[in-house]
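Translate sequence into structure tokens.
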Amino acid sequence: MTRVINDMREICPISEETADLLRSVTKRRLFPKKYQLIKEGTYTKFAYFIEKGLTRSFWLVDGKEVTTSFAGRGIVFSMDELYYNKASEEFVETIEEVEAYEIEVSCLLRLWETNIELSNWGRIIHQNEYRRLHRSHKELLTLSAKERYEQMKLQFPEVCMRANLGDIASYLGITLSTLSRIRANK
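Result follows.
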């Protein structure tokens, strides 16, 4: 859990006592490529701190997968379950082998209520996620497909190198053939 703790400490102060507490309530898990961590319509009961690997979140719309986000090192959870006690509206799938630390959602919520360091960290990651979503929405409405791809390469270079091109195209709101043309005309 070394990388997870170090990444948390880059965001805000995390004491060794808090790090030990987090280690004591998580379980190391390895997931193969294409494993569904979270399934639409289900209660997962777990959140995951990703130590290594990459995931993508997506909705099924008329039988077609629509990628909503990618996540590397950090935390993955169902917002519907975490905040609203509802079944997930999306899928979260590994797109490469993932090493993660599993925590029960109820335990994570309890830690956010009782540990100021983890509460602050949770607030900051959610502020950052809101900012990412806001920027993504703005870009979708105001930028051309080529400009959106260029922005994605700047903001998420690792995703652009490691994710499936079809998933990237879906995230950008374009077809795979459009993305291929953009990439060919670098």
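Note: Residues 2-114 form a domain with the Jelly Rolls fold (CATH 2.60.120.10).
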